UniProtKB/TrEMBL annotation:
Molecular functions per Gene Ontology: nucleotidyltransferase activity
Site, Transition state stabilizer: residue positions: 15, 22
Marked site positions, Positions MEP for the nucleophilic attack: 147, 201
Cofactor requirement: a divalent metal cation
Family label: Belongs to the IspF family. In the C-terminal section; belongs to the IspF family.
Residues of the full protein shown: 2 to 221 of 379
Organism superkingdom: Bacteria
Gene name for this UniProt entry: ispDF
Region (2-C-methyl-D-erythritol 4-phosphate cytidylyltransferase): 1-220
Function, in words: Bifunctional enzyme that catalyzes the formation of 4-diphosphocytidyl-2-C-methyl-D-erythritol from CTP and 2-C-methyl-D-erythritol 4-phosphate (MEP) (IspD), and catalyzes the conversion of 4-diphosphocytidyl-2-C-methyl-D-erythritol 2-phosphate (CDP-ME2P) to 2-C-methyl-D-erythritol 2,4-cyclodiphosphate (ME-CPP) with a corresponding release of cytidine 5-monophosphate (CMP) (IspF).
Keywords associated with the record: Isoprene biosynthesis, Lyase, Metal-binding, Multifunctional enzyme, Nucleotidyltransferase, Transferase
The protein's name in its UniProt record: Bifunctional enzyme IspD/IspF
Catalytic activity: 4-CDP-2-C-methyl-D-erythritol 2-phosphate = 2-C-methyl-D-erythritol 2,4-cyclic diphosphate + CMP; 2-C-methyl-D-erythritol 4-phosphate + CTP + H(+) = 4-CDP-2-C-methyl-D-erythritol + diphosphate
UniProt entry tagged with the keyword Phosphoprotein: no
Amino acid sequence: TQVTALIVAAGSGTRMGGETPKQYRPLAGKALLAHACEALLSHPRITAVRVVIGGGQEELARKALGSLDVGELIIGGRERADSVRAGLAAIDDGIVLVHDAARPFCPPEVVDRLLDALESADGAVPVLAVADTLAKGDRELRGTVNRNQMLRVQTPQAFHIEDLRFAYDEAGSGAPTDESSVMQHAGLKVVTVAGDEDLHKLTTARDWERAEMMLQARMI
Ligand code: C5P
């Protein structure tokens, strides 16, 4: 089967500050997006890597990607779900691994676990347990949530492409942000596999510094 990694990079990526969307900014000398692509391009079971970018980001993306083999760039949309839909319309049937551009490291074992799990499920996602207490509230606590029932869901998320296309059709407009929710709403079975701390999404300036330090120390 064809296994396509679909890297969604069409966000404005400016929560961390700065003018250039973070996915195109250099992390230890190479764009964040390029790190994410390389991690998946090097996996022996992945047959193609494609990238979804925002309209107007072509030049930034080409510069960030250099000679990486990601085929033609796909133009995404306003919401993440629009970007995933655009990606699904542009790729061949088989298996898709939807992945955030903001996660520069992807241990190959996670991809293996996902692909193995898909043999008996419609979808598979990497998850981690919650270490901190989870609570509701703002400046005052309004109850805690049983963290034993809670999971942190990461990407890549693996699906049979026809199932995910069907799930998005069922969801119509206003689909939830994450693919695994769209699948569940459509009544499809999504299983979990062990995630990895290295899959951490770079969101804050602190995340960025830590990732640079790890790359420089060649810890990753
Ligand atoms: O904003 P957030 O960190 O949740 O975005 C996760 C991923 O989805 C990022 O890689 C971002 O570029 C992508 N995205 C997208 N299209 C959008 C919004 C987000 O491809 N409209």
